[in-house]
Structure formats: structure tokens, C-alpha cells
Specification:
The protein is built from seven helices and no strands. Helix 1 packs antiparallel against helix 7, helix 2 packs antiparallel against helix 3 and helix 3 runs antiparallel to helix 7. The longest helix is centred in the C-terminal third of the chain and has 36 residues. The model has no long low-confidence stretch (mean pLDDT 77). By secondary structure, it is mainly alpha-helical.
Length: 212
């Protein structure tokens, strides 16, 4: 019974770490919008996502190797890193709530400055075209932001809204789904920590039963 439980926990934890690897792919998809924010050159959205993606890869590696090799040291390292990430997420959520107004100003300023690079930077052009096509918006506050000519990705019409307002409305209308996704991510992290501790204890019990 003990060996069966150990194998089950091992492969369940391995499966959970595959989810972490998949999340790195989604981070790479979001990374293309990092070019729009150059207010802080050393702390762009792209750099932050690269750092986060690297940390997730390290955590997932520790979890996978710890579960397959039944290595207690790797499992505890996995647990500690997951705990640190969870605490960092809670801290970030609090900071975003406290500095919400400054964040809005940063986003508006970053979007406005990026318009100037639309014709000179292909990455910025692709990011703006994606946003305007998806949200059916134009510019930051409207078509008047495009002084050098309205891009083809802007929808036609005299009542087209700016992307800043449309983005806020999109977040408000999808707030429930964003909240559910955030909660699911936290639950997965807590489950990963629980499975790591349980597997660690199960390894001890199995070793004692075998007289190792």
C-alpha cells in the first residue's frame, strides 16, 4: 500500500509540474506586449516576464526531478520556492491595489509614448495592431492620437473608442473570469506544495518500512 501511494503521489506531482511548464508558453505569448512600455528600461514588462518564466522553469524542474527521483532535498527546495512565489504574488496584489492610480498613469504614459515608435519598430507595430484588432479600439484615447496617420488595424467609424478605455472595460467585464483564473493558479500552487510535503513524508515512511 505504501509503495502504491508513493507512486501515485510521484506521478500526480509530476503532472502538476507539467502545468507550470505550460504556463511558461503563455508568458511568452504575453511577452510581445512588453515593447509598449519603455518607461523603465531595466524593468520592462518583457524583462519581468522573462524572469518569471525562468523562475517557473526552475521550480518545475525541481518538482519533476524531485518527484521522479524521490529526492527529499529537491522536493523541499520545490516547496520553499513555491511558498516564496505564493507570498510574492500576495505582496504584488497588495501593491497593485495600493498603487492602482500610479499604475494607471504608468500604463497610459507607456501607451502614449509607444505610439511614437509605431512606424520605426516592427514589434511595437505588431503589438498595437493586435490590441486594436482585438479590442476594436484606436490609439490611447482615440484616433486623434495617430498624428502621422491612422493605422489600418483601427476600426472604421466616428465613435471608435481609445484602447485605454476599452482595455479597462474589458478587464471590468471579465473580472470574474480573471479572478477565477487567479484563484485556480493559487490553488494549483498550494496543491503542489501539499503534494511535495506529502510525498516527502511518504518517502520517509517507505524508507522506514524497508529498513533503509
Amino acid at each position: 500500500m505504501g509503495m502504491s501511494s508513493l507512486k501515485l503521489l510521484k506521478y500526480v506531482l509530476f503532472f502538476f509540474n507539467l502545468i507550470f511548464w505550460v504556463s511558461v508558453y503563455f508568458l511568452s505569448m504575453v511577452n510581445k506586449f512588453g515593447v509598449l512600455f519603455h518607461n523603465l528600461p531595466s524593468l520592462t514588462l518583457g524583462n519581468v516576464l522573462v524572469i518569471v518564466g525562468s523562475v517557473i522553469m526552475v521550480v518545475a524542474f525541481l518538482g519533476c526531478m524531485g518527484s521522479i527521483k524521490e529526492n527529499k532535498c529537491l522536493l523541499m527546495s520545490f516547496f520553499i520556492l513555491l511558498l516564496i512565489i505564493l507570498l510574492a504574488e500576495v505582496t504584488l496584489a497588495i501593491l497593485l491595489f495600493v498603487y492602482e492610480q500610479k499604475l494607471k498613469e504608468y500604463v497610459a504614459e507607456g501607451l502614449t509614448n509607444s505610439i511614437q515608435r509605431y512606424n520605426s519598430d516592427n514589434s511595437t507595430k505588431a503589438a498595437w495592431d493586435s490590441i486594436q484588432s482585438f479590442l476594436q479600439c484606436c490609439g490611447v484615447n482615440g484616433t486623434s492620437d495617430w498624428t502621422s496617420g491612422v493605422p489600418a488595424s483601427c476600426p472604421k467609424g466616428s465613435t471608435v473608442k481609445g484602447c485605454y478605455i476599452q482595455a479597462k472595460q474589458w478587464f471590468h467585464s471579465n473580472f470574474l473570469y480573471i479572478g477565477i483564473t487567479t484563484i485556480c493558479v493559487c490553488v494549483i500552487q498550494v496543491l503542489g506544495m501539499s503534494f511535495a510535503l506529502t510525498l516527502n513524508c511518504q518517502i520517509d515512511k517507505t524508507s522506514q518500512a524497508l529498513g533503509l
